[in-house]
Amino acid sequence: MELFLHYSLLPSLFIILVLSFLQRREHHRQRDDTSYLLGNHFGMIIPLDFVSTFSNRWSYGVAFGATANKVMFLFSEGYQPLQVPQWAQAFVLLIGGIEVGLSHFPFFACLSSEFRLVSSILGFSYSLIWFAVTMLYVIQCPHGEFVGRYETIMLYWPSLLCLAFLLGRFLHMFVKSLRVHLGWELQMEENPFLEVHQAEHVKQLLRKCPLQEREKSWFQTKIYEWDPCFQFPSRMIGTTVLAFICLYLFIVIEFCVFVYVRDELDVFERELEGYVASMNQTGTPTPVLLQVKELINVTKGVWLVTILPASLTCVSYLFHILACYRKHMKRLWAGDKHFLPLKFHSPSSSESVVAIARYSGWQIAYILWGKHKGQGSCYCWSGGSQHLSPLYHWALERVLERWTRSPQDGLTLCFSLTISIVLGLMVMQVWIAASFFLQPKMGAADKQKPLALNNRRAFHNFNYFLFFYNVLLGLGACLFRLLISCILGTWLIARIDRTILQSGYEAADMGFNAWIGMLYVDHYHANPVLVSFCHILITGHRERRRQQAIKYWYLNPSAGARISVRSRTRWLLLQTLINNPGLVKLRKSRPGHGSQEFTPILLTCSES
Questions:
Q1: Span 554-563, pLDDT tens digits
Q2: What pLDDT score was predicted for residue 12?
Q3: Per the UniProt record, which residue ranges are transmembrane (predicted)?
Q4: Which residue in 25, 301, 422, 448 has the most C-beta neighbors within 10 A?
């Protein structure tokens, strides 16, 4: 599958070139620019709009779900296409993330392309290739090393299901676009500027008498109430779907490792029983060995007991984060910022833009690490800590002994370089966002640029390709968050929507910063009132231009060569007199005036 990932870049680049050729560029180059030879072709294509896309939400979510296996490989740092020194692993992981993103780019590009007929054919063909290769791999290697029978099926059936859904989706797109192309069906606007739920939200605000609320059910009162005036963007749906699949894969991988470790512990336990029996025959006490044997028995039982509450907790966090997103966005739309710390009332524009790229990857890393730490907490609460104490002290002694004997200079240098590179890449994201993806300052006295996006197509590609690498950066950010918040416990480590640090230290919680920045970007660019206002302006402008075009279409100077005012006037006079022959006899006679030369012609036309 890794080899196929490399070879899949060839059809992926071909599809990208085809869609880019069809995409028209909005700004034409000058003749002295070499890109002028390309005409208006080869425009920049986007995988999906990370800010304001509400259509095809579940299709984008399933496309993210198809990348789950590769995301887990990146998360475990098992996918490394190049062999480099330890200090350069950050660059290798960045290259691996870009390669994974490029190999799955056609799924998103074909879903968001305006050329539905061509993109549906290309998307269906590419999805079919991935589905056939994955199915062939599962059929040839259905069993694994840890679980044994059907291990590969357990790991790859979510990806196969997502690919099958994409095949059906592209087939539906092809049939629908073909009917439109043949004239059997009208073309519907796929991505309207003003969404229906945004218009309903504005109507609800302008309504003087609120509608009478219906009686709520127990589910709406206690768990969740659906709001017809609010929809989650594609970014949130895709993140949630991918987090669910990654969480399932993480549990399956843990189960595989547990089965392997359990078998090894059974062998070790039998050998330990023989050794303890021989030691007892000599009369020497072995309390440490007995505790290790007891630890083995407790571990095998406690893992099965703790995996259920830890997994259910993370699943509930995913639903709770969606509910908090809706609640926080509604508060920001209403101008209420009291739920935010004072430091986040006016966040940095560049940090907020980078937060859009970081959020999805960091959310997945936080959920997976939160599940791992939550299960560890459940184990400690189940009584495993007392059995781990002797083993912990023994392991700590071995680590300290190895550290004192190993050359510390090289290890410290390697660790410092790795941390510096990772921090440098994070700072570079902020610099790129501030330099290229924000509009200029409105005034010379402004301290920072406004939170208004610029170069949107490049911004969406920047978010997409950094999404996979930010899963790895999110792991480091989560460890840092865990280090800062260890005094408060690790039970709420996956709650990215609420900081677990004390008041005054919220800036150290990078996950919460990403959440706040994402809320501000959605608030500024998907506010129903703002979108409705812009929709009214655009609609009015188009209506005025349409009326002018209908009224003065024959005065359009761009239709041909420039005509003088006198010639145009004489032509209009001739047209008017031909359409109204009775006016010819009523015209005043002006000797020597050039317009009288039309009279014989008009009389002849009227008689005929």
A1: 555 444 455 5
A2: 92
A3: 6-22, 58-75, 87-109, 121-140, 152-171, 241-261, 302-325, 410-432, 467-494
A4: 422
Q: What is the DSSP letter of 381?
A: I
CA 207 to chain centre: 35
DSSP state, residue 36: G
Indicate the angle between helix axes 105-112 and 151-181, nearest 10 degrees: 30
Q: Is 504 helix (H, G, I), strand (E, B) or coil?
A: coil
280 close to 356: Cβ distance less than 8 angstroms: no
Give dist(CA 205, CA 226) in Å, integer. Answer: 18
Question: Average pLDDT of the chain?
Answer: 76
What are the counts of helices (DSSP H) followed by strands (DSSP E) for the chain? 21, 0
Buried b (16+ CB within 10 A) or exposed e, 348-358: bbbbbbbbbbb
Q: How confident is the model at residue 11 (pLDDT cuts 50, 70, 90)?
A: very high
Q: Which of 330-334, 350-354, 391-395 has the lowest mean pLDDT?
A: 391-395
Most confident range (mean pLDDT) of 162-166, 237-241, 294-298 is: 162-166
By C-alpha distance, which of 350, 357, 346, 514 is closest to 431?
350
Contact 90, 98 (CB under 8 A): no
**Residue carrying structure tokens 């610029």:** 454
Place of tokens 């550290």: 403
Q: Tell me if 535 sits within 8 A of 372, measured CB to CB.
A: no
